[in-house]
Amino acid sequence: MKSTISPYPYPLLEKVFNHYGQSVTAANFYLVCCQHLLEPQLKMFEHLIAFGFDPEKIIVLGKAYSSNQEIISLLTSKGVNVLQPPFSGTAFDEEHRNNCQKVLDLVPQGARVIILDDGGELIKVFVENNRKVLFAVEQTSSGFRKLENEQIKFPVINVARSATKLVQESPLVARLCFERIKDYLTEKKVFNPAVLVVGLGAIGEAILEVFKQAGFRVEGFDIKHGHKELPTFITKTGVNIVVGASGFPVLEKSEVEAMVSANPLYFVSVSSSDREFPVANFRQGNTVHQDIVYKNITFVNNGFPITFKGNKIELTPVEIEKTICLLGGSVVHGVVFPLEQKGIVEVPKALEDIINS
Questions:
Q1: Interval 137-193: pLDDT, tens
Q2: What is the C-alpha to C-alpha distance for residues 179 and 185, in angstroms, rounded to an integer?
Q3: What would you report as the CA-atom Rg of the chain, rounded to the nearest whole angstrom?
């Protein structure tokens, strides 16, 4: 099969890895990862191998909704151990935890481990099993929340809350979300939609703003703002597009079943997993990117984030490159400059300076 990887050279990624050079030491470590398996991540792993990591000691768990088969094949051809079990159709968080346990079982007892995680579950599994970890890198806010009350005996670099990711990535994700929703509404011939954004963190606020700027009628909902009873709020405001950006379950199965709306409702997730809405209760198959329909309610993209559709690239390489640099750069920084503090730590300032200079 002919490769269709983009010709973009990832100059910033090259700059970051050139700064740290190469490391013989890295060949002695197991690099255990959960990542979206897309082209930018492929480029990151290529640089990590060039840095000195042994591909046979790189274990990568993908996510069913954000893994591209060509990227999996290319990573496997480089000797990387890629684990991407077929999607079963059950609640993703439950399935993902089982997959993280399978990753743990692949790592020899006593191995010197570095974890690169998306969502915090892989780190949590290693913590709960009291496995030796040199340090970890976590890239999501939901993962940060999952770990912040854990007793962690090793450093976890908190990419999710870095200024670069919060300030620069959030508007890009919001714009992609907006474009995907707009295209979807055009396809479904939904005119003059009213939008509700649930969860007003960095991403939610950015989504709210981009819809406002485009002239949509848009509402916000967040319990931290004193809002209560989401089903009633949906009914009273008359919205027909509900965007879940909280990182938590926002509706129960019984609430969906009892929901009455004169207009069709479309539930759209932009957070990791399928946890925003109880879509697993209404699935009848295991196709990843199909809509799930219950009465006049549609769970768009199977309840998975609309920002992932199975492509090799979702955000453009230029847009996502800084995030990839934060991830790969945090790994190599931790190898070159061993971290001593335990628990959640900030992204090294020196790394952010390189990325933003």
A1: 999 988 999 998 899 999 999 998 898 888 888 899 999 999 999 999 999 999 999
A2: 10
A3: 20
- To which residue do tokens 């993908």 refer? 62
pLDDT at residue 4 greater than cutoff 50:
yes
Residue with tokens 């699935």, as numbered in its chain: 283
Phi/psi at 188 (5° precision): -90, 0
Contacts of 41 (CB under 8 A, 6+ apart): 35, 71, 324
The pTM of the full predicted model, rounded to 2 decimals, is 0.95
240, 74, 96: which is closest to 84 by C-alpha?
Answer: 96
Q: Where are the beta strands (DSSP E) in the chain?
A: 30-34, 58-61, 81-83, 113-117, 133-138, 155-158, 194-198, 217-221, 241-244, 265-269, 292-294, 297-299, 343-345
Which segments of 170-281 are extended strands (E)? Answer: 194-198, 217-221, 241-244, 265-269
Give the distance, in angstroms, between the CA of residue 297 and the centroid of all CA atoms in the same chain.
25
Do the beta carbons of residue 134 and residue 154 sit within 8 Å? yes
195 beta partners = 218, 241
Using the predicted structure, report yes or no on whether residue 275 has a pLDDT greater than 70: yes
Q: Which two tokens stand for residue 211?
A: 């819809």
Neighbours of 108 (CB within 10 A): 8
Per-residue pLDDT at 3: 62
Q: What is the mean pLDDT of residues 320-330?
A: 97
